[in-house]
Every structure is written in structure tokens, then in C-alpha cells.
Specification:
Blueprint: H1 4-17, H2 24-36, H3 64-73, H4 78-90, H5 97-109, H6 113-131, H7 135-144, H8 146-149, H9 151-167, H10 171-184, H11 190-202, H12 206-214, H13 225-237, H14 241-249, H15 257-269, H16 273-285, H17 292-304, H18 308-320, H19 327-339, H20 343-355, H21 362-374, H22 378-391, H23 397-409, H24 413-425, H25 432-444, H26 448-460, H27 467-495, H28 502-514, H29 518-527, H30 533-545, H31 549-562, H32 568-580, H33 584-596, H34 603-615, H35 619-627, H36 638-650, H37 654-666, H38 673-684, E1 690-691, E2 700-701, H39 703-712, H40 719-731, H41 735-747, H42 754-766, E3 774-776, E4 779-786, E5 789-796, E6 799-807
Organism: Oldenlandia corymbosa var. corymbosa
Protein name: OLC1v1002065C1
Keywords: Repeat
């Protein structure tokens, strides 16, 4: 027996098929049919209309009145009304204002809120230019019919209009509409206001969301639990946590878990995970519901703040007292450890997770494999991938791309190709990243023909190479074919409609420099129609790497005159090259330009320039640069202070070093063992006595004062500091103290180096009482005196391992 719905559907098709496009007779038939049995409808049922026959077979002249009359007859048959409306558009009939309003009332009457909102969004976006009327005309027309349909149905239309404005991010219009509703004495539901406020927050306008919340009472609305949750989120976005907590407190003792989680998300997203954790504990003490999702929010917050141990502690809390943690909780911490490069902790936590029968997933697998790959542990990637495969979890394209990359970097291109086929066998479609990784692997391993085959394979699979693929090809062809090879790639890119970027040009420039083709690199650079400042930087890098420092300097100075910026990394490279080649004068002359041009200085650039100037003994200039650190917003850290101290000690300006050391301590920067070693070494090489760090003028300081300071700070000496002290005692004739320090080194298991032995033997040489071979730490040094020169030699296992000479004084 056929169902009622089947008979109804069949009857409908017959009626529409036989129509002369909605003659009066047909309308009567449909009306009679519709009146037999009205059935419920919803938004979901609209999809069925696509299966129905065309409503009309041929086009006859229509007018708005006839269409409107027909729509009214279909008030309880919205599926057919929607189909009719669609057919009108296909027949190029332009619905007027009354037609749209009729459709809106039908959707409203049948509770089809999504369809109602969809049509209103259409009216909003098409505007008067597209329809001949706008949404405000629709509103006025709807108001005229309110008495016929009642306020309850009308409020549904108003809610839909608010949501339609919000969906289109037309918040000004939505606000205007709210005041218009209030002025006319109509009401809307709190749900549409919740939707509007949520959209405002999503679009970064938390202030307006809060303003609407503050006017709810004037609009005659009472906030519900979701309203409070939205407003809590708004205040959190504004970092106004005091107000967020005030709103939260209005929910009383038991806010629902959704609002509670929103508060946690707000706090944790703003770096206040500790506060979120404390609120979570308070809820737990009150024996209120906390789900794994709430815990996961705080865990993710701790991870974002790099407080991984706190996150793991919370995980232990869950295992003991809370809901069982899921893979999301574990995965967040594993991701944190991976981002920190701590793969050992990541793997350990992963092992604990699986031991608790919590199944891992491909996302967690990708965190671990990516971490190992970034650390260069390609063998471990291969091994771990095998473990994941054996566990039976689904491994997606991302995971396969990582392992293919690792195999290529191990030189196992054939195995990587096997993984490609494995992907295809499992129904995983390789993407451009997969092919680009393999092409790069083939090129790096000299398999150029295989790379070309992969490129063809991409085309066969309708995958278009992207810019990164082309950059890889540009590097390969430049390295193997010089400028001609590079031009072939650029032609290929043109044929594919891919515009080369500055990266493409830089890849070619760098590869040409790398193979010694300096002239070809210059020719290519000269041919570029538009030269980016980053291309100029690449040329400077290339000159530096190819030992053409003079050209690099000339280009830098020329660009400086034109006001063209050179990036920091290139300025650093140029500085390093000049220092390495001993170009003292150029470093001093160009130091300001290297520091302050282009995108400005960085902490690293400041450190490098100061270090270079100090190594050349240009302390006045170094101190000027040192003084400019703070005005530029950078820190004078212990490293920079130590570099300056070392510079002053090297040029024997111990008074300035002492003053700088005092300044360092007064600013609350604790000297480390390296700083003290520099001072000890400086004092050992000079007869100038240091001023006391605490001290007033005229007071002096000995090495014992430095040692006392080190002791207070809990700093233990290293080989360098002990050697400096031993050297100091030996030079002042205090050989016994030097030997005591040497023995202390041995007791601390600090291995003396050649400098330590040299310092001690120099002390022995100056002692008039030593007239024989010297045994130190079980090693015997043979003493010879020739032509007023004392020589100590150490033979170990028949090999001369140390020879120390000292003129007798």
C-alpha cells in the first residue's frame, strides 16, 4: 500500500506537469490538493524540492497579483512555495516587494527560520539597486501585516532580521534596527541578541557587544545563562577580568559548564592560565561539574604560556580526582613539548597516554614527527613512523609528507617514492607539498630525471606546481645549468601562469654565487626589471660568501646613499665578514650604518658591533654604541657588559673596567663566572690595582675581593677563572698560593689546560729556589737553561706535548 506522502508527491507532480504555467484552473487544483492534508515542514525538507518536476512547462505572461495570489494559497505548503519561487527566477520573473513579503510570511508561519534568514540576507545584500527596494521597505511592509498574523509570528521575523544583519556583519544597521523596533513598541527574543553580541565579539567589536548588554533592560529583555557567557567572553577579550568575574558572579553558585568554560577560555587566552586554574579548583571544591573540556582549556593555556610542567601537573590531577583526560588533553602538552624541541618528554608523555589505553591520533603523530624532523633526527622519524603504523591508527597526508621529507634528507629517495605509492594505495591523494618534497629530495640526491618524472606525474594528476615547487626547480637548474638553467625555469613558470617572487630571484642569485658564477649572478641581477631591497641583500650575502667583500661594501654604501634598506641578516653577514678579514677601519667607519640603517638595529646586531669594536681596541666607539642600547629599547645584559669588560681589560684600561663593573651591579645585573674570569684575567696581566667595587676613591681591591664576591653569589670557578688566579699569584711571586689553587682545581675535577701549566711554570721559573725539573699533577717538566732562557718541556709517551719558555728576570 502506498504511503500518504508518496501519493501526495505523485499527485503534486501530475498537477504541475499538466499545468499551462499556473492558469486559474491549475491554481484551484493545487489549492484543493493542499487543503486535503497539511503536513509539517522544516528547513531540512527543502532539499527535497530539487527532485521534483518543473512547475511549469512553458512560459506565459505573469503578473505580480497572480503570483501573490498563488503564494497565499501555498501558505501551508512551503516546499512547493520555495520551488515555485525558484521557478519564477528561472523564468526571469522579477519578484516585487509584495512577493518577497509573502514568501517571508510563509517561512515564518511554517517555522522555517533558516530559510527566513536566508531570504532576508538576500534582500540585505542585493539592496535597492538589485531589487528596486531595500530591507527597510520590507520591514515597513511586514509591519503593515502584523495585525493579520499576530505579534508572535512577527517577532520571529524580527529575530531573523537581527540575525541576517549580524551574519552579514552589518552591525551598524543591526543597532539601528534595534532602536527602530523599540521605538515602534515591538519585542524580540534574547536569543537573537545573543547571536548579535556573539558575532560582534567574533569580529573584534567587544565594546559594542557590551553596550548592547547594558541596554537589554531598556529593550525589555532579561539575560539568560548564554548571555552572561557571551558577555564574560567580551570582557575577557578586552582584558577586563574584574568585570568578567562580576558578570560571572551574577550566575550564582552554579553557572553552567558552558559559561564556566567560556570564562576559562577568556582568562587563558590572555595569559592568565594560573587564574583559570584557581577558578577551576574552586569549582571542584564546590563539587560542581567539570568536564574534560574545561581542563583541556586550562592545559592549552599553560602550554601557550610555555608552562609545560604545570600543564602536566594538571593532567595528573585529572587522573587522580577529575574526569579522565582524553587525547586532546595529552595532545596539547605533547604539542607543547614538541614546539619546545623536547622530543624526549613528548615521547615519554605519549607512552604514558597509550599505556592508559588512550588511543593516539594522526594529529599527535604529526607533532612528534615534525619535532624530530626539525631537530634533524631523520632516522628517528623513520623509526617512529613505523611504530605509528604498527599501532593501527590512521595516518593522514600530513604525516606521510613529514616522513617523505625525512627519508629524502636521509638520501633514501627510493624509500620515499615507496611511501608515495603507499599513500595512493590507501586512498590518500598526494598534494603539491608531497610532490614538491619528493622533487626537492630527488634534486638534493642528484636524481634529476626522477625529479622531472615527478613533475610530469603532477601534471597527469592535474596538480599545478606552486611557487615553492618552482623555487625548488629554480635552485636546482641554477646549480646545474647556471644562468641558462635559471632562465628555463622562469620560462616554465610563465607558461604555468606563476609569477616569480623575490624568493625565486634570490634562490637563483644565491645558487649562482654558490657555484662560483659571480658574473652570471650579476648579469641576472642586472636583468631584473624590478629589484626588491631583499634582492640587494641577497647580492651582498653572495659577495660575502664568495670572498668579494669589497664589492659587498661598495654595494652597501651605494644603497645607503640611495636610501635603499638592507636587512639585518645581511648587515650581520657583512659585519662578520669584515671582522674575519681584519678590516678594522671599515668596521669602525661603517659601524653606525651597519647598526641603524634599513630595518634598524637588533640586540644581536648591537652585540656583534660592540664585540667587533672591542676586539679592535676601539673602546671609545664601543662605549658610544653601548650607551645607545637603552635609547633604542634594548637591554644591557650580562653578555654585553662582559664583552665591554673584556675590551677594557685587553687595552689595560682597568679603571674604566672597574667603573663599568660597578655600574653593572648597581643596575641589578648579576655578573656571571665569565665576567669575573675576565676581571681576574685582566688583573693578573696588569700591575694596576683595582678600585673597590663598593669603595670610595683611593681604596684598592685585590683578587681576594673578587673571590669573596663570587662566593657570595654562589659562583664556582671554572678552568679559565682558576687559570687567571694562578697566573695572578705567579706574577706577584705568590707561588705557594698558586700551587694551592692548582691543587684545588684537581680536587674539583677541573682539568688544567696548557695555559694553566704555562702560568704555573712561569711562576716556577721566577722562583730562585727552583733549580731542577718540576713535577706537577704527576707530570714531570724537564728544565733547561740556555742563553739566559729557561725552557720546560713535557714528554708524554715519547711525544713532546708541551714546551714552555720564559726569560729569566
Amino acid at each position: 500500500m502506498r504511503s500518504v506522502s508518496t501519493i501526495r508527491s505523485a499527485s503534486s507532480r501530475k498537477i504541475f506537469r499538466n499545468s499551462q504555467f499556473f492558469g486559474i484552473k491549475t491554481i484551484s487544483s493545487v489549492v484543493q490538493f493542499s487543503s486535503h492534508d497539511s503536513h509539517s515542514t522544516s528547513d531540512e525538507q527543502i532539499s527535497e524540492t530539487g527532485k521534483s518536476e518543473d512547475i511549469g512547462d512553458q512560459y506565459l505572461e505573469l503578473n505580480s497579483s497572480r503570483v501573490l495570489e498563488f503564494l497565499k494559497k501555498l501558505k501551508k505548503e512551503p516546499i512547493y512555495a520555495v520551488s515555485f519561487f525558484a521557478q519564477l527566477r528561472e523564468q526571469r520573473f522579477r519578484p516585487d516587494l509584495r512577493t518577497y513579503v509573502a514568501m517571508l510570511w510563509i517561512f515564518c508561519y511554517c517555522g522555517m527560520d533558516r530559510k527566513l534568514r536566508s531570504v532576508l540576507r538576500e534582500v540585505i545584500t542585493l539592496k535597492r539597486e538589485g531589487l528596486g527596494f531595500d530591507v527597510w521597505d520590507v520591514f515597513d511592509a511586514l509591519v503593515e501585516g502584523v495585525n493579520a498574523v499576530g505579534l508572535k509570528l512577527f517577532s520571529r521575523v524580527l529575530d531573523a532580521m537581527i540575525k541576517a544583519f549580524a551574519s552579514e556583519s552589518m552591525f551598524g544597521e543591526a543597532t539601528k534596527f534595534l532602536y527602530e523596533i523599540k521605538k515602534r513598541g515591538f519585542g524580540i527574543s534574547i536569543f537573537s541578541l545573543n547571536y548579535l553580541m556573539n558575532r560582534l565579539i567574533e569580529c573584534g567589536d567587544a565594546d559594542r557587544a557590551i553596550l548592547i548588554y547594558n541596554h537589554l533592560e531598556k529593550l525589555g529583555l532579561t539575560p539568560n545563562v548564554y548571555t552572561y557567557g557571551i558577555v564574560v567572553k567580551a570582557f575577557c577579550r578586552k582584558r577586563n577580568f574584574e568585570e568578567a568575574l562580576t558578570v560571572f558572579s551574577k550566575l550564582g553558585k552554579a553557572p553552567n559548564i558552558c559559561t564556566f568554560t567560556i570564562l576559562l577560555e577568556g582568562l587563558c587566552s590572555q595569559g592568565l592560565s594560573v587564574s583559570g586554574y584557581n577558578i577551576l579548583l574552586a569549582r571542584r571544591r564546590d563539587n560542581l561539574t567539570i568536564d574534560a573540556c574545561a581542563y583541556a582549556v586550562v592545559i592549552r593555556g599553560f602550554v601557550k604560556e610555555k608552562k609545560l610542567k604545570e600543564a602536566e601537573h594538571l593532567l595528573l590531577d585529572m587522573n587522580e580526582d577529575g574526569p579522565m583526560p582524553d587525547e586532546c588533553c595529552y595532545g596539547a602538552i605533547i604539542q607543547g613539548y614538541c614546539q619546545a624541541g623536547d622530543y624526549i618528554e613528548a615521547l615519554d608523555l605519549h607512552s604514558k597516554m597509550t599505556s592508559r589505553n588512550i588511543k593516539t591520533n594522526c594529529k599527535i603523530a604529526s607533532f612528534i614527527l615534525q619535532c624530530l624532523c626539525q631537530l634533524g633526527k631523520f632516522k628517528e622519524v623513520k623509526s617512529q613512523f613505523g611504530h605509528f603504523q604498527k599501532s593501527g591508527i590512521y595516518l593522514d597526508k600530513v604525516v606521510y609528507n613529514i616522513v617523505i621529507d625525512a627519508l629524502c634528507k636521509l638520501g633514501k629517495v627510493d624509500m620515499a617514492m615507496t611511501k608515495l605509492n603507499e599513500m595512493k594505495g590507501k586512498g590518500i591523494v598526494p598534494d603539491v607539498v608531497t610532490y614538491t618534497t619528493l622533487i626537492n629530495g630527488c634534486i638534493l640526491n642528484g636524481k634529476l630525471f626522477e625529479a622531472a618524472d615527478l613533475l610530469k606525474n603532477m601534471e597527469q594528476n592535474e596538480l599545478k606546481p606552486d611557487l615553492i615547487t618552482c623555487d625548488v626547480l629554480a635552485g636546482a637548474f641554477s646549480r646545474n645549468g647556471g644562468l641558462d638553467g635559471a632562465l628555463k625555469v622562469l620560462n616554465f613558470m610563465g607558461s604555468q601562469g606563476i609569477e616569480p617572487s623575490y624568493i625565486t630571484f634570490n634562490v637563483i642569485i644565491k645558487k649562482l654565487f654558490a657555484i662560483g658564477k659571480v658574473r652570471e649572478s650579476e648579469r641576472f641581477f642586472d636583468c631584473l626589471e624590478i629589484k626588491d631591497e631583499r634582492n640587494y641583500s641577497a647580492m651582498i650575502d653572495g659577495y660575502c660568501e664568495s670572498n668579494n667583500t669589497e664589492k659587498a661594501c661598495d654595494l652597501f654604501v651605494w644603497l645607503l646613499g640611495l636610501g635603499i634598506a638592507v636587512n639585518r641578516s645581511s648587515r650581520l653577514k657583512l659585519l662578520d665578514t669584515l671582522v674575519m678579514e681584519g678590516e678594522h677601519d671599515k668596521v669602525v667607519m661603517m659601524s653606525d650604518a651597519l647598526l641603524y640603517s634599513g630595518d634598524g638595529p637588533s640586540q644581536k646586531l648591537f652585540t656583534k658591533v660592540i664585540s667587533a669594536l672591542c676586539s679592535f681596541g676601539k673602546m671609545k666607539k664601543a662605549h658610544l654604541v653601548f650607551d645607545s642600547l637603552i635609547p633604542y629599547g634594548f637591554n644591557r645584559d650580562v653578555i654585553i657588559y662582559t664583552i665591554m669588560l673584556n675590551g677594557y681589560c685587553k687595552v689595560n684600561h682597568l679603571k674604566e673596567a672597574s667603573a663599568l663593573f660597578n655600574d653593572m651591579k648597581e643596575r641589578g645585573i648579576a655578573p656571571d663566572i665569565t665576567a669575573y674570569t675576565v676581571l681576574l684575567d685582566g688583573s693578573s696581566k696588569s700591575n694596576i690595582v683595582w678600585q673597590k667595587m663598593s669603595g670610595s676613591k683611593g681604596e684598592r681591591i685585590s683578587t681576594s675581593s673578587l673571590l669573596a664576591d663570587m662566593s657570595k653569589l654562589g659562583l664556582e670557578g671554572d678552568v679559565a677563572s682558576y687559570t687567571a688566579l694562578i697566573d695572578s699569584h705567579c706574577k706577584t711571586g705568590n707561588l705557594e698560593e698558586a700551587i694551592t689553587l692548582f691543587n684545588e682545581m684537581i680536587d674539583l675535577h677541573l682539568a688544567p689546560n696548557i695555559k694553566t701549566y704555562t702560568a704555573l711554570l712561569n711562576g716556577y721559573s721566577k722562583s730562585r729556589h727552583v733549580k731542577k725539573d718540576v713535577t706537577i699533577n704527576g707530570l714531570t717538566f724537564k728544565r733547561k737553561v740556555r742563553n739566559d732562557k729557561t725552557t720546560y718541556t713535557l714528554h708524554h709517551q715519547g711525544i713532546l706535548t708541551a714546551k714552555i719558555e720564559q726569560f729569566r728576570t
